[in-house]
Amino acid sequence: MGDVRTEPPAADLVLQHQDIETAPEEVTVLVTGFGPFLAQFPINPSHEITKLLPTTLLPDPSEPTNPRIRLIIHPSPLPVAYHPTATIVPTILSARTPDLVLHLGLAAGRNYFALERSSVRIGYGRNKDVLGQRWTDVDSDRQWPSHLKAFTEGDGKLCSYPDRLATSLPFEDIWRRWRSLCADIEGVGDGTSSATYVTTISTPPHQTGVPIPPPAGAATSRPWNRVEVRPSDDVGSFLCGFIYWTTLAWFWALHQQKQKEDKEREYAGLQPEPQQPRRLAAPEDDGERPVLFLHVPGCPEERDLQRGKEITVAAIRAMVASWLGQKRRRANDFVV
């Protein structure tokens, strides 16, 4: 089904294009960290790093026209527990409505920082959380029904979820920007020699999170005074993967509901938001999920936390820059 529209005057077209490309004055980024985890981590470095972050990041002097970045730092550490996370995170997202989201979590045993690409819907029942509870596949089917088990809620909304969701942000571009920004941080490497084995295993979703051994001959340990930054697609099947999925799924559902409302308006013969440009969505477009997860290693000393803060700031700047670039590119596709 389509509709016939007359072409707008050239001057109006230029004005609307400029309006879309105009950068916002401020970009908001929600940042969270976790609380105590395991006996050896009574103080979780993921939350300790968020406490060190500034509330505002001014534009880089080399790009003075870029907007400032306001960090919405969740003041308390999130519990390393499934059911509270499933309740708290959507509440925060609905109340704060951030432009982007960055979750931080501890990867015990790792000696590198890793940005994660995706997470899965099921497979969280193998390990108990700090409350001694599990999140079963039945819980996932109830909270995020798959296309085979979708159900209609009391309010009539229908939403089904895939078994895996990835960030909609340009991941490779963010990785390149993050690596470049981290090059100026003392004692940080980019892990290019070993990043190839930080990937997702080709197994069913419940198997994700199984460590992948490094290739033969790869270094297995490094001095503690040096860390690496790496891209990864192995967020795991504990709370790190769970909070990442929960946020990705929240944005997924938001997009599904928006599509449903647009179709209802179209069927009713109504125009969605008259006089407002709309993106031309590609057939495979499944909405924006401007979310990333950052795995951090243990940070036993204050200097490690300070370096973790710098690495996190670099990740945030890379996220925002890539997101703005993505929006500018997409602004070329719109209708009146």
TrEMBL record:
Keywords: Hydrolase, Protease, Thiol protease. It holds the Pfam family Peptidase_C15. Residues 263-286 are annotated as: Disordered. Belongs to the peptidase C15 family. PANTHER family: PROTEASE FAMILY C15 PYROGLUTAMYL-PEPTIDASE I-RELATED, PYROGLUTAMYL-PEPTIDASE I. This is Peptidase C15, pyroglutamyl peptidase I-like protein.
